[in-house]
Write a structure and sequence with these properties.
The chain is α+β, with helices and mostly antiparallel strands and 233 residues long. 38% of the residues lie in helices and 25% in strands. It has helices at residues 26-43, 69-80, 112-123, 133-142, 171-202, 210-214; strands at 10-18, 52-57, 60-66, 89-97, 99-102, 107-110, 128-132, 150-157, 163-169. The strands form two sheets. Strands 2-3-1-4-7-9-8 form a seven-stranded mixed β-sheet. It has a two-stranded antiparallel ribbon with strand order 5-6. The longest helix has 32 residues, at 171-202.
Length: 233
């Protein structure tokens, strides 16, 4: 199912895969696939139709989002909440080139972005979210500071023996980072205050500003006697 007329060259690709889907009974597979379709139906309206392309089937779904890494992350994060209903999702996200391959029988997404996102989703040992450095960089560019919630998780290798760093989502990382900055700022302020007090105690006779020295002298007006020899008249 295509939902855009022109697929972007660079997209944030979200690959959703139901954990251990192939090992489940057929009846359970059908139920989980229906739940995944429901999740897509609920979450996709948050992304403009002309900015997305989604393909779903056989316990997985791929979503390509044009030029909106924050929207892709928000979609994936909300999809993870489906585990409450028993839908364990392994999600991989990458930012890279994507193209649409169409045939008489089917349509498919291809490209580096899809391939890498698939590796991330397939490498997950349980329900969760993994993203690449490329996506983290795109997120930092489009929404500075948002990338701090993506922390290093594991190094992975694909079929081409390329190794890259994968990041996981940790919303508490931003809060911890903010607390660390506040602690550093407080310690720095205390050190500067202690240094100022020490200087005042140990250097009581420090040189005074020139303005204080000039204030000691009262200006005197001198009248030359040669100019007014007979005094004022």
């Amino acid at each position: 199912m295509t939902e855009v007329e022109h697929l972007p060259v660079q997209s944030s690709v979200v690959l959703l895969r139901i954990h251990d889907f192939a090992r489940r009974p057929v009846a359970e597979q059908a139920r989980l696939s229906a739940q995944l379709d429901t999740v897509l139906a609920l979450l996709l309206p948050d992304i403009p139709e002309r900015s997305r392309l989604v393909l779903a089937g056989n316990g997985s779904a791929a979503l390509a989002v044009l030029d909106n890494a924050p929207a892709a992350l928000a979609f994936a994060e909300r999809a993870l909440q489906a585990h409450v209903a028993g839908l364990g999702l392994c999600i991989g996200i990458d930012h890279g080139p994507v193209e649409m391959l169409s045939s008489a029988a089917s349509e498919d997404l291809a490209g580096d972005g899809v391939a890498t996102a698939s590796v991330l989703a397939a490498s997950a040992t349980g329900p969760g979210l993994l993203v690449t450095q490329n996506f983290r960089t795109a997120l930092a560019y489009m929404s500075p500071g948002a990338e701090s919630a993506l922390v290093p998780a594991v190094s992975l290798s694909d079929a081409g023996l390329r190794t890259y760093q994968a990041y996981s989502l940790d919303r508490m990382a931003t809060l911890r980072r903010r607390r660390i900055f506040m602690i550093i700022a407080a310690v720095t302020a205390c050190v500067l205050l202690a240094l100022a007090i020490s200087l005042r105690v140990w250097m009581p006779d420090r040189p005074r500003p020139l303005a204080d020295e000039f204030g000691k002298y009262v200006p005197t007006i001198f009248v030359s006697p040669t100019r007014y020899p007979h005094g004022n008249r």
